[in-house]
Amino acid sequence: MEVTLDIVVRSTEIDVNGHVNNAKYLEYFEWGREEWYDQSGLSYDVLSALGVQTVTVNININYRKECRQGDRLTIRSRPVKAGRTSFVLQQELYNQAGELCADAQVTSVTIDIASRTSHPIPEALRNALEG
Amino acid sequence: MEVTLDIVVRSTEIDVNGHVNNAKYLEYFEWGREEWYDQSGLSYDVLSALGVQTVTVNININYRKECRQGDRLTIRSRPVKAGRTSFVLQQELYNQAGELCADAQVTSVTIDIASRTSHPIPEALRNALEG
Amino acid sequence: MEVTLDIVVRSTEIDVNGHVNNAKYLEYFEWGREEWYDQSGLSYDVLSALGVQTVTVNININYRKECRQGDRLTIRSRPVKAGRTSFVLQQELYNQAGELCADAQVTSVTIDIASRTSHPIPEALRNALEG
Amino acid sequence: MEVTLDIVVRSTEIDVNGHVNNAKYLEYFEWGREEWYDQSGLSYDVLSALGVQTVTVNININYRKECRQGDRLTIRSRPVKAGRTSFVLQQELYNQAGELCADAQVTSVTIDIASRTSHPIPEALRNALEG
Predict the structure, then answer these.
(1) Engineered SS bond to C32: which of A40, A91, B39, C75, CB 3.0-4.6 Å?
(2) Domains of chain C
(3) pLDDT at position C16
(4) Three-state DSSP class for C104?
(5) CA gyration radius for chain C?
(6) How far apart are the C-alpha atoms of B44 and B38, rounded to whole Å?
(7) What does DSSP assign to residue C68?
(8) Cβ–Cβ contacts within 10 Å for residue C116, how many?
(9) In this structure, what DSSP letter does residue A120 have?
(10) What is the DSSP string of D44-55?
C-alpha cells in the first residue's frame, strides 16, 4: 500500500541558503513512514504488543530539487522489498508543482524488543509489506 | 586529508527512545563536512569567490549503533573519490568507546553560482580532495 | 486581527519524555507569527521594500499542558500593544480538546535594515497591529 | 552554584538570516540547565529515585545580540530563587567577545512522578538551589 502525507515547509526548517536543510528531509521521510505504519494499523504500540520493534539500518537518499518556505509537499511511502528480518520502504517527496524533490530507500530490520537481536518479520507486518 | 570533529550529544538531540534520531546523524555529518572544508581552507566564502558552490546530491548512511545523551562522539571525514564535477566524502561517527555508530558516503556536485548548473571542480578543491 | 494556524505534532518533535520539547513551542509560535504577517500582507519581502525588518527582543512563555505526537494544535496570534518602535503579539497554543497548552507574549522591535538601529513602526504594519 | 557550559554554533543551527534562530537559544539554555543538574549531582535518575521530576512552567528570555556559525558561546546557569515547590534559574549566554547575547529566567516546578501534582522541593535539590 502506498501512503501519502501532505506537509507545509515552515520557517524554522530552512537554512541560511533559504532552502530546506539536508537533514530535515530525513525528518520529513520519518513523518511519512509514521503515517505508513499508522495507516497500515501497525503503530508502535501494536508492534510492541507483538514483541518487536523496527530499527532503521540504512537510508540512501537522492536530493533532486530545493524546497522552500511555504512549499506544499507530498510524501509518498510504499514497501518495495521484504526479506526474512529486513524490509525496504521507497519514499518520494514532491512539491506543489508535482516535481520530485527527493527520493529515498529506507532499510529497516525487525528486532526482538527483549533480546535486541534481529527477529523474523511478524505476519501482520509482512501482510502490510506484501499487500 | 582526514579531518575530525569532536561533539557531545545534547538533551534536545535524543528522541522518545532515548537515542539520537536518524535525521540528527545527518546534521552531525554536515558539521563534520563544514570542519573538513574549513580545515582545507575552502570555506563557503572562498568557494563563492571562485564562483562555485557545492550541493549534496546523495547520502548513503548506515546506522550501526545507538548514541545517547552525553556520549562523546568523533566525526571523521575524508575524500574518497573525485570526478569531473562531483566528489565523494566518506564520513564515520565513533563513540567514546571507539565503536563505529554510523558511516556515510556523501556525494556532492560543484555548481556555478550564477547559472546553477554543474561546473568542473576548481583546482583548489581538487587539490584538497586528492591531497 | 487574530490569525490561526493548524499543525500536527510530528514524531521528530517529541523528546525522551514523549512530549513536545520546550524549545519546539517557540518554533510553533514562530510559524504562527509568520502566518500572521502573511495574512496581514506583511511578508518579509513587503517589509524589506519598506526598508525595515522586525527583530524579536523578548519572549515570555507559559507552559501549561504537554503536547504529544499526533496532537492537532491550533496556534492563535494577535497584536496586543504597539509603541513607537516596538510591539507585542499575544500567542496561544490549543490542543484538539480545546485545552490551552501554552501562551506567550512576544515583543519585537522594528529596525532599519541598513543601519540596524530601531526605526518607527511603518504605517502598513501599524495599521495591521491596530486594525 | 553557577555552572558554565561551552558550545560552538553549528551550521544547522542558523536560519535564513545567518544567525541562530530564537527557538535554538532555548535548546542552548536547556543544555546549560542539564549541565547545572549534572554538576549539582541531581541528574534525572537521582531525582527520579526521590520520586520527583522538575517541569518548566515559564521562560522569560531577552534576545540581545545575534549569534553566528562558528561562534564560541558560554552558557552560565545559577539559581536565584526557591519557593516551596517552584524555583528559578537565571541563565546567560555570552559570545567569545564576552558580549551578552541572551539571558533568561526559567521557572520550574517540582512534581510527584506518580501523581503528576506539585511536590515540595526535596532537600537535595533545595541545598543545591540555596548552596
Answers:
(1) C75
(2) 3-130 (3.10.129.10)
(3) 83
(4) strand
(5) 16
(6) 8
(7) B
(8) 11
(9) P
(10) HHHHHHTTEEEE
**Residues forming beta bridges with residue D19, ordered by sequence position:** D68
Phi/psi of residue A32, nearest 5 degrees: -65, -40
CA B38 to chain centre: 12
Global pTM reads: 0.95
Question: Which cell is B20 given?
Answer: 539520537
Residues C35-75 pLDDT 10s: 999 999 998 889 999 999 999 999 999 999 999 999 999 99
Tell me how far apart the alpha carbons of residues A83 and B61 are, in angstroms, rounded to a whole number: 20
Say whether A15 is catalytic.
yes
The answer to whether B89 and B79 have CB atoms below 8 angstroms apart is: yes
Chain D residue numbers touching C60 (CB-CB < 8 A): 58-61
DSSP B34-89: HHHHHHTT--HHHHHHTTEEEEEEEEEEEE-S--BTT-EEEEEEEEEEE-SSEEEE
Place of cell 515547509: A9
Specify whether the CB–CB gap between B7 and B31 falls below 8 A: yes
C58: closest chain D residue by CA: D62
Minimal C-alpha gap between C59 and chain D (Å): 5
Mean pLDDT score, B72-76: 98
> Which residue from D minimizes the CA distance to A18?
D16
Residue A24 CA to residue B24 CA, distance in Å, equals: 9
Contact A60 B57 (CB under 8 A): no
What is residue C96's predicted lDDT score, i.e. its pLDDT? 98
ipTM over 0.85 threshold: yes
Give the relative orientation of helices A22-39 and B22-39 as an angle to the nearest 10 degrees: 170
Helix (H, G, I), strand (E, B) or coil at A57: strand
The C-alpha of C67 sits at a distance from chain B's nearest C-alpha, in angstroms, of 13
**pLDDT class for C17, splitting at 50, 70, 90?**
confident
| Angle between the N-to-C axes of helices D22-39 and C22-39, in degrees from 0 to 180, rounded to the nearest 10 | 170
For residue B128, the SS3 value is: helix
- pLDDT band of D41, cuts 50, 70, 90: very high
Give the pairing of strands B3-8 and B72-82.
antiparallel
- Alpha-carbon span C61 to C63, nearest angstrom: 7
C-alpha cell at A106: 529506507
Cβ contact D16–A21 (<8 Å): no
Which ranges constitute the DSSP H helices of D1-131? 22-39, 44-49, 123-130
Q: What is the DSSP letter of B125?
A: H
Q: Which cell numbers hold the place of B56? A: 549534496
CB-side neighbour CA atoms (13 Å) of C33: 26
